[in-house]
Specification:
Elements lengths: L1 H33 L19 E2 L3 E2 L18 E6 L5 E8 L3 H16 L1 H5 L5 E11 L5 E10 L4 E11 L2 E10 L7 H13 L3
């Protein structure tokens, strides 16, 4: 009985130690996830008429594939999260933490210039016709700007995308929403609300 009791106590001690280590590991993981800017939740995205939104994990590095218009400017220090629906709508958020506010302001300016020139650059492909709209600035954080880009191809596809660039302090975020359609299908008002939420979560 003494041997069995000793073994039982040893087993219970091991289980308790394992549980403590597991809890410590979970706490460390939660703390790591909490570090840095928060990302959009699926419910923060423009509502889809027939599908919920789903989200992947927040991932360090550049998204693959790179998003059109802004992808080439994204550094390796980016973090990103992808979103999708049961149908054709998808979204992406990319966030970059710069060393100081001036670098963040410069980077946000670079992204805005890339988006302003996006349609022209896309039309360098003879099979692509593109047009853009500037939906203006939003007074959130240290500023945000919203754009729309429509693309049509010679093989018949028609896609609409909304982009926003926002900054708060030394952190910049880019949000992209896209689906098949035209400018008439773009949920601009809801996307502006999404952008405001994204920038507020940076601080």
């Amino acid at each position: 009985m003494k041997i069995r009791t000793h073994r039982a106590r040893t087993a219970l001690t091991a289980l308790a130690t394992g549980a403590v280590l597991a809890l410590a590991g979970a706490s460390a993981t939660a703390a790591t996830a909490a570090d840095g800017p928060r990302f959009l939740a699926p419910a923060d995205l423009p509502p889809h008429p027939s599908s919920p939104w789903y989200a992947g994990p927040v991932t360090a590095g550049q998204p693959d594939p790179l998003p059109m218009c802004v992808g080439e400017a994204l550094p390796s220090t980016s973090s990103h999260r992808a979103y999708w629906t049961d149908l054709d709508a998808n979204a992406l958020q990319v966030t970059v933490v710069e060393r100081d506010e001036q670098e963040a302001a410069d980077f946000a300016g670079l992204l805005r210039r890339d988006l302003a020139d996006c349609a022209t650059n896309l039309e360098q492909d003879p099979d692509v016709t593109a047009s853009a709209k500037d939906y203006g600035e939003l007074g959130v954080g240290d500023g945000a700007h919203v754009y729309g880009v429509h693309t049509a191809t010679s093989w018949g596809s028609s896609d609409i995308a909304l982009f926003s660039v926002g900054r708060d302090g030394n952190t910049v975020t880019v949000v992209k929403w896209a689906q098949m359609g035209t400018f008439q299908d773009a949920p601009v008002k809801a996307f502006k609300a999404t952008t405001r939420t994204a920038v507020k979560k940076l601080s």
